[in-house]
Amino acid sequence: MMQIYNTQTRRKEEFKPIEPGKVRIYCCGPTVYNYFHIGNARPFIVFDTLRRYLEHKGYEVKYVQNFTDIDDKMIRRANEEGITVKELGDRFIKEYYTDADALGIERATVNPRATEHIADIIALIEKLIDKGLAYACDNGDVYYNTQAFPGYGKLCGQNLEDLESGARIDVDPNKRHPMDFAVWKAQKPGEPAWESPWGMGRPGWHIECSAMSMKYLGETLDIHCGGKDLVFPHHENEIAQSEGATGKPFVHYWMHNGFINVDNQKMSKSLGNFFTVRDIAKEFDLEAVRMFMLSAQYRSPINFSREMIEQAKASLDRLYTARDHYLFLLQNAKDGEPGEKELALLEKVKAAREGFDEAMDDDLNTADAMGKMFELVRDAVFLQYLNLAADLLVIFYIALGCWRAAPVTRLLLRSAQNHLDLETNQTMGHFFENIFHALVGLFAGIAMLDRLGVPVSGLLTGAGVAGLAVSLAAQSTLNSLIAGITLVLERPFGIGDYIVLGDCEGTVEDISFRSTRIRSPDNVAITIENSKITAEYIQNYDRRQSRLWKFTIGLTYDTPREKIEQLTADLTAMLQAQPDVQPDGVTIALDKFNDYSIDLACRVYITKVNLREFMQVKNTLNLQILDLMKEEGCEFAFPTTTVDLSERK
């Protein structure tokens, strides 16, 4: 059964839909005054994936995502451009679909617009007033009465008094309580407005989602989702409005995705790292952006960078290559009973499918699910490269006149596929591909010259021998290639490992047949020829016991000192109790304390040295830290930032 982390209960819960076989989901959509940015893209992609997976499991999913097409930002921009708010909304709804389609996001079952549901919104406000949960002011504004709703604050885990003390609120003499919020706003000069019992005006932001979600999905929803920044006040206010009006639970499962940082910094226009999806589309295929967004568990923070998109694109290319390879095998399969290899492959496919479903059932863990897919990818890539290697060597032997050796070589390479480590062959594949492309160009040139009457085909064998002689003369290059092949096959270390090579040390970034590139602790790239890397040259590798994870927790400036001290003690105890953390390897210290922010500088030594295992542990701990902070009522002024620094201890 699928488990979903419920923001309201702060734990994973077994997913049980209200109506068997059917799921009702509401996802907060964009405010359509501009192109949506990459921060918006994450929830759109993540919860589109949730919808697709539930449909894959056989559920009938009704998916509603709204368009906010009336608010202050829209009014301001429409006035600047000299157009109506509706014209602005029409334009950017169309642009939303353009970018969302490119990201592979399925169209929602319904995309309601706030301005087309004014009657529904007014009816809901009237019901709240009748129940004493909202009140009209003399100026035409209508506010929600938060003091009249006992459950206010249950989603974010704080009571009304705590929320009031920690909030930054504009003083409004019309409010009965500082936390009251507008459900209807009286018209101001130059603003669009609709008739209502309280005069001309327009709806507040929060009320539109309550009205539209209940209209299309009923008074109780299965799942309501959005970005973590919407937990308070938007989703908290939706609960107050909807449950206050109906007296029924509004949502069974609340899901919220983590923040996006850009190059390890919070995304903001002032830092110049604010990108719309349309901006990114000028540089990258948006399918690679989708791949990147799903490469981490949705609740954890994720760091956006061009390098990460490039890596996602490479992974996507590998997936397509593997898919094409398996389709080829399927289309060219012979009739009859499957042999030993076919049965083994079927078992691998079955195990990967089960592992994929198991990961997705664990709170939509797309990162682990992708890992299961790439187990099949490695098999496909290996077989493809090995076959290519055999074909290339046959071409070499024929070119050299040693055609009798070609079948033997092919047979040896075909049989080797059961013995070599599948994870070593990505580098080999690039090597053989480059050779293949060079040979294709060579033979195409020879064929062209032949057609022009130049007698070069008869010199093919001699050219091959001359080429071999040149290769033998370049002894250092040949030695480097041999060392590289040995290095790739024996794999004394891999990409992501921290190693010490002679006088230099760092994290392995790339391994080719000619050289190995590492990144030093001070961020310097060092390239070392493989011919120099021997068992004796790799020093202190076994002495490395841990990796250091450094991160900063930013708290709101008004967090009491006693709460900071309690959080520090509880966080230290929690981390020290983890099996993959050195008991004496946790340090948390107050780094900044002023009128603007409070920073806790944290250092945690994780005993998993391999980079992939380290990242898995780090991401798991990240979620536990966020959960602990929620339990203790600590609010972020900005999202947690992480910096990985390889250090030996």
Short account of what is shown:
By secondary structure, this protein is an alpha+beta fold. It has helices at 38-56, 72-81, 85-102, 118-130, 160-166, 205-217, 231-246, 277-281, 286-293, 306-331, 340-361, 366-399, 406-416, 425-451, 460-473, 475-490, 561-576, 611-631, and strands spanning 3-6, 11-14, 22-27, 60-65, 134-136, 142-144, 181-186, 201-203, 221-227, 251-257, 260-262, 265-266, 302-304, 498-501, 504-511, 515-519, 525-529, 538-539, 547-555, 581-593, 598-606, 641-645. The chain has a five-stranded antiparallel sheet with strand order 17-16-15-14-18. Strands 4-3-9-10 form a four-stranded parallel sheet, with helices on both faces. A four-stranded antiparallel sheet has the order 5-6-7-8.
Which features would summarize this protein structure in a list?
649 residues; alpha+beta; five-stranded antiparallel β-sheet; 22 strands; disordered C terminus
Characterization of this structure:
The chain has about 650 residues and is an alpha+beta fold. About 45% of the residues lie in helices and about 20% in strands. The protein contains 18 helices and 22 strands. It has helices at about 40-55, 70-80, 85-100, 120-130, 160-165, 205-215, 230-245, 275-280, 285-295, 305-330, 340-360, 365-400, 405-415, 425-450, 460-475, 475-490, 560-575, 610-630, and strands at about 5, 10-15, 20-25, 60-65, 135, 140-145, 180-185, 200-205, 220-225, 250-255, 260, 265, 300-305, 500, 505-510, 515-520, 525-530, 540, 545-555, 580-595, 600-605, 640-645. β16 (about 515-520) and β17 (about 525-530) form a beta hairpin. It is globular, with a radius of gyration of 30 Å.
